[in-house]
Amino acid sequence: MKPYDAVDIRNATPDHYRSNGKITWIESMGSLLCFRAVLVLLAALLFCAPAATQAFSQSFAPATPEEAGVSSERLARIDAALEQYVEQERLPGAALVIGRRGHVVYARAFGYRDREAEEPLDVTDLFRIASQTKAVISAGVMILQEQGRLLIDQDLSDFIPEFDSTTVAVEKEEGGYEIVPAKRKITVRDLLTHTAGIGYGWGPAAERWVEAGIQGWYFADRDEPIAATVERMADLPMDAQPGGQLAYGYATDILGVVIERASGMPLDEFLRVEMFEPLGMADTHFYVPPEKADRLAVVYSLTEADGMVRAPDPGHMVGQGMYLEGPRKSFSGGAGLVSTPGDYARFLEALRRGGILDGARILSPKTVQLMTVDHVRDAWKGDGGSGFGLGFGVIEELGWSGLPGSPGAYWWGGAYHSTYWVDPAEELVVSYMTQVIPAQGLDDHQRIRALVYQALVD
Q1: Same domain, yes or no, for 117 and 159?
Q2: Spatial CA neighbour of 421 closest among 348, 363, 325
Q3: Residue 447: CB partners within 8 Å, gap ≥ 6?
Q4: Is residue 87 included in any domain, yes or no?
Q5: Which of the ends of the chain has fewer CB neighbours closer than 10 A, N or C?
Q6: Nearest to 191 by CA among 225, 147, 233, 235
Q7: Which residues are CB-neighbours of 456 under 8 A, at least 6 positions away?
């Protein structure tokens, strides 16, 4: 097991350039006098004005647990629990990164990247994060609002004209359904909150979605750009009226196209420039680069009938998928990214700090606040008394879940059984990844939550 290596501090002072993540002095200082003046200024900043240097000391770096109010002895209970899951063949492997008070206090991997080959899992290995992609895309939309390129209450048709007039399939009491016009246009905010009425093609008019070749959340095998698929969705009957009930589905894939149209950039390029590079997320991609292929964790299936078995290869959705050998054309904003626990923890830590990490600001604190409060009211009450914000489940009523936490914490997960949460009240971020689908009978998410909180002692 390797500890998580934090990315070097970026933008140390205005007189530094970035070079491969390392700090290099500007070569052309002009004169020795100027050089000495800079040294005097740096000394003043470092030793005489701590507040002024705060922006230069934000790296999400490792620290001893006790420095961040966490018990090392109690963290060892997590080790024992995850080792047991692996030994009992309930997990092939799992990796966990915990951040507290701005530091990484836990970063470990257990079990195997590939059980059959007996390749041990490393905390820097790559995982398919499926719906954890949604939070990244939602943040991307909010970046564009901050840049003045869109407003979240704009009509979707401003960016994708095919959605100017949509329909809804309404079930009849006697069976079947009728198709009626949507009562209003879909907005960008409807998509962010999953209240646009668009599911994953399994609604009342499911056969029409099947005929169109659009059903389910998996896009990695599609030999066409995501925009082409999304444009065809506009002609299909939706599952509910816009702004009504929560219908979890293609909303965030559609937002990926909105990002492309509003920014004028391919989705992968936009995320790289606006988020991944600024935050030091060097291992987050839509498709695995060939040189990183040996770091992609294998997918397994856990069922009561068969136990833990390797999923089909190449497979579709459940199996190993096309993240290595696929067409690499469809950038699924709803479920397409691969990442590492450490990379995703950096994204979460930036949100926890109000949109900034290592001096790189991707969002303002007020935008993060807007994203992480409930927007759906009575439209949905999820697990643990959660509402839903702009890309996240948001815990409102702590007593519902029977597990520790804090009101205001926000969370979600992915189809391959990964999960995450941010607890601002406890200055806590948690990034947990494994690759199991389906994951019948697994209770590791609940157990990890309990074990993380019991380790907080200050």
Answers
A1: no
A2: 348
A3: 81
A4: yes
A5: C
A6: 233
A7: 69, 70, 71, 100, 426, 428
Written as six digits, the tokens of 106 are: 């836990």
The kind and range of the H/E element at 37 are helix 32-48
Q: Which of 351, 322, 339, 331 is nearest to 422 (CA)?
A: 351
Edge-to-edge order in the sheet of strand 386-388:
119-120, 103-114, 93-100, 428-433, 418-423, 410-414, 393-395, 386-388
Residues 326 and 406: beta-carbon distance below 8 Å: no
Which residue matches tokens 């609002």? 145
My answer on whether 444 and 296 are in the same domain is: yes
Report how far apart, in Å, the C-alpha atoms of 354 and of each of 59, 139, 276, 305, 350 are: 14, 12, 17, 46, 6
Tokens of 19: 């070079």
Q: State the total domains in the chain.
A: 3
d(CA 388, CA 258): 21
Q: In angstroms, rounded to a whole number, what is the distance separating the alpha carbons of residues 408 and 368? A: 12
Same domain? 98 vs 186: no
What pTM does this model have?
0.86
The CA distances from residue 455 to 323, 358, 449, in Å, are: 36, 27, 10
Structure tokens at 431: 């990034």
Which range scores top for mean pLDDT: 11-20, 307-316, 380-389, 418-427? 418-427
Shared-domain flag, residues 443 and 302: yes
How many Å apart are CA 456 and CA 156, to the nearest integer? 44
Tens digit of pLDDT for each residue in 95-142? Answer: 999 999 999 999 999 999 999 999 999 999 999 999 999 999 999 999
- For residue 198, the enclosing domain spans 149-263
Q: Please tell me whether residues 116 and 155 are part of one structural domain.
A: no
- Tell me, yes or no, whether 199 and 237 share the same domain: yes
| CA 182/CA 32 separation, integer angstroms | 71
